[in-house]
Amino acid sequence: MRHIIKSSVICLLGASLLANSCNLLNVDPISEIPASQMWQNQRDVNAGIAEIYASFRTALKTNWFCWGEMRSDNFVLYQELPSEYSKLLLNQMTTDLPSTSWQSLYKVISNTNFAIQNIPDSDITDLTLKNDYLAQAYAMRALCYFYAVRVWGAVPVYLEPVDNLANAEFKGRTPKDEVLRDVIIPDLELAESLIDPSNVERKRISRNAIYAILADAQMWAGEWEAADATIDRFMSANGSPDAAIQNSTVVFQKDIAALKNSFVNGLNNKPGDNNPKVDEYGESNEFIFVIHQNINEAGQSNYSMIWSIFGCGMGQGSTVVLSPKLQAIYEKAASQAPVDKRLEYYMCPSKSSAESYQVHKYMANGTSVKYQDYINCQVAYPVYRYTDVLFMQAEVKANLDKWQDALNLVQFVLDRAGVSSTIAPVSRFSSRDELIDYILDQKQIELVGEGKRWFDLVRNHRVVKVMNPINGISSQDEELFPINQSVLNLCQNAYEQNPGY
Questions:
Q1: Facing residues of 173 across strands?
Q2: Beta-carbon neighbour count of residue 456 at 10 Å?
Q3: From residue 19, how far is each of 55, 110, 117, 189 by CA, in Å?
Q4: Is the pLDDT of residue 25 over 90?
Q5: What is the distance between the alpha carbons of residues 351 and 395, in angstroms, rounded to a whole number?
Q6: Strand 243-244 relative to strand 357-359: parallel, antiparallel, unpaired?
Q7: In which element (H, E) is residue 77 found?
Q8: pLDDT tens-digit series, residues 99-137
């Protein structure tokens, strides 16, 4: 009987789950290729790496919103309709919600484990290319585990591929701090040493993406000095916000109109070329790593969700609109002198009046998209951009008690918005917590609609403080998502449910 590569262990995925195909490459899916015929040459390895990104796109298609933003104070429902998003926003968490399942992430992890095991023995004579493939696999494994620990806390750790479900070893959950320390950060550090610096693709792992993910993970581990050093390496490679390095593909965009153009034209309708030396996302801009939702590459089932969740533009509805709290902040900032430009560039009225606002970063001002067109939308979700890194380093500096340095980094963002004169002075803050609250508030205004706010609240243990008045979250246990009941059933309840569910 053929030895078939499977996607993961039965407790994680179920016995019948197979890996997805990548239509762009016109090759057989990894899960259907005998192991003796896979991972032999560059074509095989390229197909294997493409499968990692294809499965990652599937895993994050809706979870990018659900995990990073939909439980936060950024949004409220546009219409009172039952949906997963409504349950997340209202804190009505149940163990049957799709976003409570980690199966799709472990499918990606399984694909990365096969790559890590087999790439070293593949017939690729170009060592730089081979190492770059390995770097992408290690970094993507780290990123998936990073999402997992931020969402569920302790998770099972599998670092070897499982190609025989019947003989799969059951593993319990490893504490979050151990996964960060022993898996995520080491994988990223190894990836940094292996990556080809000339790889500039934003829809795949590059050196800049590794810097961003690594610094983020180090922050979650409380390794502030290490995170600061990682961000310094990023700055050395790309330049500071006020002095970009010539020919760098990643820059801090000082002009908000240019940044808006990057969201509208830099993330939309970009065909995949699968050439790591050519960045199809064009000229230098803020984006470091994106999830490339391209129906020609990932299949029609992977269409962008940005239209249906954030809305398509003037006069048309959406799933969510800005929360009254956040809307009031934007409107106040836009009504005072100097005027904050972000209401104009990042938002639009959800109807013919300004009674509520949609996030409109991803579409040109004053435009809309027809309902029947959105299923064909090709758009990339931003995972990290330069401004993320600025806010990360501001938080790091605050935790290192370098308060003025932290505020100086925030000021770059306010300057682009036209309100640099409103930056709070150091004398305003009497504690580190007050400064971190200020940084997180500024980050919320800037990065709304980019899948960050919930993770920021969880990392800084602000969930109860911020969300209790909004939806009644009353326990720190609720920082975690529950584990989907189907996972518990597959494992015969060997895993304990997260507390509070």
A1: 156
A2: 22
A3: 8, 9, 17, 28
A4: no
A5: 36
A6: unpaired
A7: strand 75-77
A8: 999 999 999 999 999 999 999 999 999 999 999 999 999
